[in-house]
Amino acid sequence: MTGPTLRAGDPTVASLLSRCTFPPPGPAVTLAVSGGPDSLALLALAAAAGLDATAVHVDHGLRPGSAEEATVVAAAAERFGLGFEARTALVSPGPNLEARARSARYAALPPGVLTGHTMDDQAETVLLHLLRGSGLHGLAAIRPGGQRPLLALRRSETAALCRHLGLDPVVDPSNLDPSIRRNRVRLEALPLLADIAERDPVPILARTATLMRATADHLDDEALALDPTDARALAAAPPLLAALAVRAWLTDLDPHGHPPDAAAVARVLAVARGEAVATEVAGGHAVRRSAWRLRVEPAPATGGSGTEGVQGTGETL
Fold this sequence. Notes:
Layout: H1 11-17, E1 29-32, H2 37-48, E2 53-59, H3 70-79, E3 83-88, H4 97-108, H5 119-132, H6 136-139, H7 155-165, H8 181-197, H9 201-223, H10 231-236, H11 239-253, H12 262-272, E4 278-281, E5 285-290, E6 293-298
Parallel strand pairs: 1-2, 2-3
Antiparallel strand pairs: 4-5, 5-6
C-alpha cells in the first residue's frame, strides 16, 4: 500500500490529532484494526502521535475472504512503521450475532486495547441504550479517554483522512444488514431524526452522553458514603443513592464486572426495607438480611427470588 506519508506539520493530520486523546508516547499499545475507515484512521493517527503500537486484526470467519482483509491492515501498519498481528476468533452465525462477535473480538484482544470509536458511534450507542431502557449509566454510553482516542471525531472525518492518505478501507457488507439493530439506528433512525430536528443529531446525542456521565459520576461519588450492607442505612437513604450503592456492590460481585439490571437492585432494596428476607441476584448469588445487615451467599439450588410482589423492569441504572 502506497500513498502520501505522514509528513510533519500536515495540516489535515495535525487538525484531527489535536482533537484525539491518545496516550503519550511510551509503553507499547495495541490497536484494534478491522481495516474499515475508522480503524485505519486510528492506525494512521496513532503513528502520527508517535506511539509504539501494534495493529491487531481479528477475523471472525463470518464471510468468504474475511481473512484476506488482514492484508490491508498489515500493509497500512508496515507503511506507517507499526507492528501487526492477525488473530482468529471464529463466531458461528446465529441470534445476537453482533454481541457475540464483539465478545469474541475483545476476548482475542489484550486489556486496554485502543479502538476507533467515533462521535457517530457514541450517538448510536446513546439511542440503542435508550431503547434498552438504560438509566444514567447506560446513557453515558462510551466513556472517553485513551482507549477511545477518536471519540471527538466524526465518521466522515476518518473517511476523509483515509482518502487524504491514499488508504483504501475494507468495505464490510454486514454494515448494511438491517437485521443488526445498530445498522438501522445508523441508516434509518439518525437520518430521520436529522430531518425532524432540521439539524445534525449526532453532536446533540454526544453532548447528552457527556452530561449523563458527569451526573452519574457525581452521584456515584455520593453513593460511596453509603454502606450497601447496612440495611437500615439503605432504607433511610434517598432512593437513587441507595440504588447506586447497591448497583456498585452487585457490580463488584460479578466476575466480569457487569452491572445488575434495575430489577435486581429493586429486589435487594426490598430486602433492605424488610419486605423480603432474601433474593437471588446474577452470578449464582443471593443477598440475605440478618440483624439488619445484608450479606452475600450462594443462591439456593432450588431457585426462587424470595421477593414476591417485587416486579422487575429489565431496565438498567
